[in-house]
Design brief:
This protein is mainly β and 201 residues long. It contains three helices and twelve strands; from the N terminus they run βββββαββββββαβα. The protein has helices spanning 63-68, 160-165, 183-198, and strands at 8-18, 21-27, 39-42, 45-53, 56-61, 79-84, 103-113, 116-123, 136-139, 142-150, 153-158, 176-181. The strands form two sheets. Strands 1-2-5-4-3-6 form a six-stranded antiparallel barrel. β9 (136-139) and β10 (142-150) form a beta hairpin. The longest helix has 16 residues, at 183-198. It starts with 7 loop residues before the first strand and ends with a helix.
Length: 201
């Protein structure tokens, strides 16, 4: 489990095909603290550390993960937001994040609001995915508050600190981002949809 509070950014150093999977080699500030089999969220996608060597470590993304997330578009030099799993005795500063990407979205616009940034993202509306104003959303692993919510799109406001210390500042219009919708909202949406279906059975 994660909180959506980014610890650091990492850099993709090498990409190697491994059958239908891909091995990503990254460098990050806390590589020396990582252990084999440790869970680490990469742009919101939970991946397992399979190797560490010096300042670099390796994670493997299976075919299904590559299909459902933006990982298949990573290139050497891509900057990735990183978060280690939360400690049970720590504060939940963001919100409950599973590290399971629900969907990818597309950056529609990025507006500079005199130091802060207003980003609008669209997504395919199929499934139990909803946003509400002042609700929580995870974008590339970052816990954010929804500023505006529309059908199949939403906007978030990014404070200067988040812009500077995550990979948000590398986004451009048209980029694909990983989305994890609020777990409570997903359960409620599923229950409501199920009740509506049962009315006609």
């Amino acid at each position: 489990m994660f909180t959506g509070i980014i610890e650091a950014v990492g850099v993709i150093e090498k990409i190697e095909e491994n059958g239908s999977n891909i091995d990503f080699t990254l460098s990050c500030p806390f590589t020396d603290e990582l252990k084999i089999d440790q869970s680490l969220a990469h742009n919101g996608c939970c991946l397992t550390v399979v190797k560490t060597e010096g300042t670099q470590y390796v994670v493997t993304a299976i075919h299904e993960t590559l299909e459902k997330t933006s990982l298949g578009k990573w290139k050497t030099g891509t900057v990735v937001s990183l978060e280690r799993c939360m400690k049970m005795d720590g504060r939940l500063d963001g919100h409950i994040v599973q590290g399971h990407v629900d969907h990818t979205g597309e950056v529609v616009s990025i507006e500079n609001k005199d130091g802060s940034y207003f980003i609008t993202i669209s997504y395919d509306g199929q499934g139990d995915f909803v946003t509400v104003p002042q609700g929580s959303i995870t974008v590339n692993g970052i816990s954010l508050t929804v500023a505006k919510s529309k059908e199949n799109s939403f906007s978030v406001a990014i404070i200067p600190y988040t812009w500077e210390f995550t990979n948000m500042k590398h986004l451009t219009t048209g980029d694909q981002v990983n989305l994890e919708f609020d777990i409570i909202g997903k359960y409620i949406a599923r229950l409501i949809n199920k009740q509506n279906v049962n009315k006609y059975i």
